[in-house]
Design goal:
Blueprint: H1 5-31, H2 36-59, H3 64-88, H4 93-101, H5 103-115, H6 121-137, H7 140-143, H8 149-170, H9 177-199, H10 209-234, H11 240-248, H12 250-260, H13 268-285, H14 288-293
Helix pairs in contact: 1-10, 1-11, 1-12, 2-9, 2-10, 3-8, 3-9, 4-8, 5-8, 5-11, 6-11, 6-13, 8-11, 9-10
């Protein structure tokens, strides 16, 4: 299967939209007193189960190399998610969202350091525009920003998210995407359940299972199986830096869905921040060198 770069970027954009909608379901689950490890564990097991149902022929041919790459990618993904969630306990949601999104800053430098691929000049301009957009989108322009332990944990999680995107784009192309999809579900589910049993078991009695379980099932089907599989395929046919900028729009779409469903009001900051991010995305899609040559 060969996918054009434009179609690959579209797959990543659809993944970001799905993840943006996922904030609503995650909020429902946490409101039902479900902890991050349990949510991650259940949705991961659903992800792995669906991947095996649809792609079992390819999964049954998994090699040790596939297994090792899948375990590595899954572990990176899990660590980033857990650090982000832990950081949220000790900082504001606005700071958490903004600092998570700065993973886009780290991506070109990780690529440069480990793979000696210098990013295009427009990438730096697009990154700056995106970061300014996130400042408006998360309302830090009015609230200000102060550094706490939660912020430090979130910054570290952003580094892991950047490593994950680079790893998906550079190291996983030799592995069948269906095998990798299954391994991501297995690691997400396995590590999540282990984390939950070790650190969250005391909170099980307070969970409203009727209210919290169905949103997690939706997250497992759409956000994990659906969007993660789109990301795996899309990143095989595009570069890590534009991929990071596209996936960064997850927060923007989360805000859009939140406003549309009445969870928060529409503000000028949302309009300005979203517009700046869209401009950055369009900038990454334009080949300025080709236009200048013509």
């Amino acid at each position: 299967m060969r996918v054009t770069k434009t179609r690959a970027n579209l797959m990543l954009l659809i993944a970001a939209i799905i993840w943006g909608a996922g904030y609503i379901f995650s909020k429902m689950a946490t409101n039902a007193n479900m902890q991050a490890g349990l949510i991650n564990g259940i949705r991961g097991l659903i992800y792995a189960g669906l991947a095996y149902i649809f792609f079992h022929k390819a999964i049954n041919k998994m090699t040790m190399v596939d297994f090792r790459i899948g375990m590595t990618a899954g572990f990176i993904n899990f660590v980033g998610y857990q650090l982000q969630t832990l950081g949220l306990k000790y900082t504001t949601p606005a700071n958490n969202a903004f600092l998570t999104a700065i993973y886009v800053i780290f991506i070109p430098f990780i690529v440069w350091i480990f793979f000696h691929r210098r990013p295009e000049g427009k990438s730096y301009v697009a990154i700056v525009i995106c970061v300014v957009g996130m400042v408006f989108l998360t309302n830090l322009v009015n609230r200000g920003f102060t550094l706490h332990i939660g912020d430090l944990l979130t910054i570290i999680s952003a580094v892991f998210y950047a490593i994950q995107i680079v790893y998906f784009g550079m190291k996983t192309t030799s592995t069948n995407p269906w095998v990798l999809s299954f391994m991501l579900g297995v690691t997400q589910g396995g590590f999540g359940m282990i984390w939950s049993l070790l650190f969250e078991h005391a909170s099980y009695g307070a969970i409203d299972w009727q209210a919290g379980l169905w949103p997690v099932v939706v997250l497992g089907i759409l956000s994990s199986f659906g969007a993660q599989t789109l990301q795996l395929i899309g990143q095989r046919y595009t570069d890590p830096t534009p991929a990071g900028i596209i996936l960064m729009t997850e927060s923007m779409f989360g805000s859009i869905f939140s406003v549309a469903l009445g969870f928060e009001p529409f503000t000028m900051n949302l309009l300005i921040g979203g517009s700046l991010i869209v401009i950055a995305l369009l900038m990454m899609q334009v080949d300025f060198r080709h236009r200048n040559a013509s």
